[in-house]
Amino acid sequence: MQQRHRVVVIGAGFGGLAVARGLRDERIEIVVVDANNFHTFQPLLYQVATAGLGGDEIAYAVRGIFRRQRNVTFRMARVTAIDIATRTVELSAGPPLAYDTLIVAAGAVSNSFGTPGVDDHAFTLKSLEDSVALRNHVLGTFEAVAADPTTASGSALSVVVCGGGPTGVELAGGLMELFDHVLAKDFPRIDIGTARVVLVEAADRLLATFAPKSGARAERTLTRRGVEVITGAGVHSVDATSVLLTDGRRIEAGTVVWTAGVRANPLAAMLGMPLGRGQRIVVGPDLAVPGHPEVFAIGDIAVDADTPLPQVAQPAIQGGRHVAAQIVRRLDGRATEPFRYHDKGSVATIGRHDAVAELSNGFRLSGTLGWLAWLGLHILYLMGFRNRVNVVVNWTWNYFTYDRAARLLTEADVDPGPGDEAE
Ligand SMILES: Cc1cc2nc3c(=O)[nH]c(=O)nc-3n(C[C@H](O)[C@H](O)[C@H](O)COP(=O)(O)OP(=O)(O)OC[C@H]3O[C@@H](n4cnc5c(N)ncnc54)[C@H](O)[C@@H]3O)c2cc1C
């Protein structure tokens, strides 16, 4: 019997899932490989970091996603090498995987741009582990100061968020709410005024990829809610207790979060091809790697040099669907078609009751309407019915009570911070 065509998909993110689902009716064998056995809904990582949601509410088991799709199998393993000549992928666990078609959809990682001290002392917000580590550190610092106020400096509770894009804005707004509405009540003996949230952006405004009006609105709303917004000054360096800005100012803080940039997952280099902007895999118009029609790259890890797309969910999802269709065309002996991206717009929440949503036709929503649009979209795209129900219940509870359920901390959760050695 002739062996089925085997498609190996690296990454169960937005792009990888879209490819596998797009091939659901085909007589093809699909193997999805991911280092984790779950898909992470990254747009809500900041909610986990600020104790609004639990980690399991924004993640979904890959095996559960494909339970009814019989042509998919899953391998939980880290990809350690790709051999384009022999068409094999080496894995951290189990035998290598041979492929007929390879989809590289391993996403992006944080990029410190070589800023001194960032890799050693700053938290990042790219994965579920990152968001849980940040939440535990913030809550753990409050517990440490409550246990012994004399050991903590006045700035131990302060957080500096580096990067005023959507992630930085959402995180700063979420942290301020956590401090003012939850931790202020949980820790009545702590002067919550010493817990500053400072948002630093090198450009002269927030939300650079949105209209100037939206950036200005975000700055006004955050400032009104108590976030200290600094624009026009970059981060020069970070050490264990402070951030030094390029204008010479130093901000003391017990927690520093870096959301100022991403680059392609280092896995991109495994193809042995020249890389493009942000170390991304350069793809042709149909999203295949030049000279290798059997290898496609999609989402955050890929770039079409002529039409670079933003590293957000929609290019990954649409790219995944496109690649699924191209695989079918190739197997039918037809030529592949170029990918056309349909920009649906962008949305960023600034906190309770406030968000900015910009649609591709120029229509703009802000305030409560923008916030409702943000809520609806996130619930719609969240994976799994149980997660959607849990998130709606949790958000409704948080909304009316100003409470946050996801703030349990065990002894083992309290980490001294990035780069610091545990005793
Ligand atoms: C904090 C945050 C907030 C965001 N907010 C928004 C938003 O509001 N709206 C929006 O549109 N976009 C948002 N984004 C961006 C969006 O999440 C990404 O653009 C999108 O996830 C990219 O999809 P992808 O399929 O390319 O990669 P990802 O979704 O990142 O998936 C990559 C997968 O590859 C796996 N992987 C990585 N390396 C390996 C390896 N070596 N071996 C095996 N598996 C591996 C990972 O575990 C992961 O599951 C946000 C991102 C972050 C970090």
Short description:
It contains ten helices and 26 strands. With 423 residues, it is α/β, with parallel strands linked by helices.
Task: Write up this protein.
There is one protein chain. With 423 residues, this protein is an alpha/beta fold. The protein has 2 domains: 6-35 and 77-110 and 262-331, 3-Layer(bba) Sandwich (FAD/NAD(P)-binding domain), CATH 3.50.50.60; 118-260 and 345-413, FAD/NAD(P)-binding domain (3-Layer(bba) Sandwich), CATH 3.50.50.100. It has helices spanning 14-22, 45-49, 62-65, 118-121, 128-147, 166-186, 212-224, 313-331, 367-381, 385-401; strands at 6-10, 29-34, 38-40, 59-61, 72-76, 79-83, 88-91, 97-98, 101-104, 108-110, 123-124, 159-162, 197-201, 228-231, 235-238, 242-245, 250-252, 255-258, 262-264, 281-282, 288-289, 292-297, 302-303, 346-351, 354-358, 364-366. A 6-stranded mixed sheet has the order 5-2-1-9-22-21, with helices on one face. Helix 6 links the parallel strand 12 and strand 13 (197-201). Helix 1 (14-22) packs parallel to helix 8. The longest helix is centred in the middle third of the chain and has 21 residues, at 166-186. The model has no long low-confidence stretch (mean pLDDT 93). Bound molecules: flavin-adenine dinucleotide. Flavin-adenine dinucleotide is lined by residues 10-16, 33-36, 40, 42-43, 45-46, 78-79, 105-107, 125-126, 166-167, 265, 267, 299-301, 311-314, 316.
